[in-house]
Amino acid sequence: MTSCGFVAIIGAPNAGKSTLVNALVGAKVAIVSPKVQTTRMNVRGIFVRGEAEIVLVDTPGIFNPRRKLDRAMVNAAWSGAGDADAVALLVDAEDVGLRPHGPAANDTAAIIEGLKAAGRTVALILNKIDAVPRAELLPLIEKFNGEGIFEEIFPISALKRDGLDEVAEWCAKKMPAGPWLYPPDQTADISSWLLASEITREKIYLRLHDELPYACAVQTEKWEERKDGSVRIDQIVHVQREGQKKIVLGKGGAAIKAVGEAARREMEGLFGRRVHLFLFVKVSEKWDENREHYRDMGLEFPEG
């Protein structure tokens, strides 16, 4: 009998949620960068385990929001958890275990309290265990075990793909009986327009994350199918200050050229066709107050 459902992966920023989702799916469906809060919306990755089709919901990191965009992201994460058939809390074992009073530990504690208040029983996935001495890992597991909301605890390394079979098996067991929602070869539920925007944003973060502030967005403005089977993609890179524009462009346009080349190569691999990518950098001081941008990102515009 077939089964199908949704598993929400939640956690503090930079815990490794997108890396885990990509590893379980076996394909890149979510962008990854060292920059905190890279994931801004719920991204659905799909994989099959036996007769079960599992839709993983990669959610934005949950933290104490200060800005409107922050609130929209955190709301999306909690919404994804509320709608899912099962929830897994991903924790960076290194960050929380070795820095018990740091931001990640505080965000994780707040998430656990939120789950308790909602009456949710979830799985705990302890990521990056290879970076924590065994003598410190066991007490950490015991500490989380005492919270009373974790039905399973999985020590893993998403990057090294250690422990993923057990996580996949748990996901499959949590799926309710029913027909599959997607074809067996589909790995993601995201539009090509949005995926293209995310790829370019990832390349910007990977190249400039030490120099560029968090407030940067990429919008796919035009998607033109060509007779030769290729596609022209026009994108706007929104920044909030003139100085940020100079950083993105780089000396003589070198930075934006390198970003465009890296993004184009990845798009061609994912889309299986030739891509003509054109990037335009624009100063949009209040892009994060624009409803259209939230809609393009798949986020609800927070009122107030």
What do these coordinates show?
Helix 7 crosses helix 9 (254-271). The termini are far apart. This protein is globular. 39% of the residues lie in helices and 24% in strands. It has 2 domains: 3-173, P-loop containing nucleotide triphosphate hydrolases (Rossmann fold); 191-296, GMP Synthetase, Chain A, domain 3 (2-Layer Sandwich). The strands form 2 sheets. It has a 7-stranded mixed beta sheet with strand order 6-5-4-1-3-2-7, with helices on both faces. A 3-stranded mixed beta sheet has the order 8-9-10. It is built from 10 helices and 10 strands. With 304 residues, it is an alpha/beta fold.
DSSP summary, beta strand count = 10
Spatial ordering of strands, largest sheet: 6-5-4-1-3-2-7
CATH superfamily heading of the largest domain: P-loop containing nucleotide triphosphate hydrolases
Low-confidence stretches: none
CATH topology value of the largest domain = Rossmann fold
Envelope shape: globular
User: Any idea how many domains?
Assistant: 2
CATH architecture of the largest domain: 3-Layer(aba) Sandwich
Listing every helix as H and every strand as E from the N terminus to the C terminus, the arrangement reads EHEEHEHHEHEHEHEEHHEH
Provide mean pLDDT, rounded: 93
Number of discrete helical segments: 10
Could you say which structural class the secondary elements and strand pairing correspond to? alpha/beta
